[in-house]
Amino acid sequence: MAADYSKLLEGIRPNRLMLAAGDVVMRAGDKVAAIYAVETGRVALSRHGSVVHVADPGTLFGESGLFGETNPVDAVAMGPAVVLAYAQAQVLLHLRAHPDLNLAFSAYLARRLNAARARIELGKLRGAQDRVVAFLTQAGAAEGWIKLGQPLSHIAADIGLTHEAFYRTLRKLVDAGLLERQGRRGFWLKGDHA
């Protein structure tokens, strides 16, 4: 499946960066060179040593660099990774030349912003069950079957739970008849989740 952003940047040739664990993609305060897309692996974005986001395969990072002069965060490969670097000047020229793509890119960024806001609110919930149910609801599992696109251990970390607490909560929801599963990543929330 193609990444959500891929059609928007079609026609721009990225540089492919082959990274090992600990390799730096960009440093906070350095001049912006590009926006980046994770092809494989994961990249941790941090500010003053604290991780603020983890970019997974199929996602962009460094988008704010299109509108700034210096990088706001450090970006470091968490393990082996392949990252595509789209030169800032080329992306801006491409978006200026194609107003329809510019509008679509704005819509992409708005969806990412809404998802980030939802994750922040999810992180404010206290109980593991509340977080898991809220996450699955945001992902669409209350409306029908969904298939999650990333490992459950990554999701657990994203919502601020240990993987053990996340798996235990999933089991509890299944045992209570509130959640059905298909394979490792298929879910459907049912009934009252309180």
Automatic annotation (TrEMBL):
**Highest taxon in the source lineage:** Bacteria
* Annotated PROSITE patterns: CNMP_BINDING_3
Among InterPro entries, the record links this protein to:
cNMP-bd_dom, cNMP-bd_dom_sf, RmlC-like_jellyroll, WH_DNA-bd_sf
Residue ranges constituting the Cyclic nucleotide-binding domain according to the UniProt record: 1-75
Extract the CDD domains matched here. CAP_ED
Q: What is the species listed in this Swiss-Prot or TrEMBL entry?
A: Magnetospirillum sulfuroxidans
Name recorded for this polypeptide: Crp/Fnr family transcriptional regulator
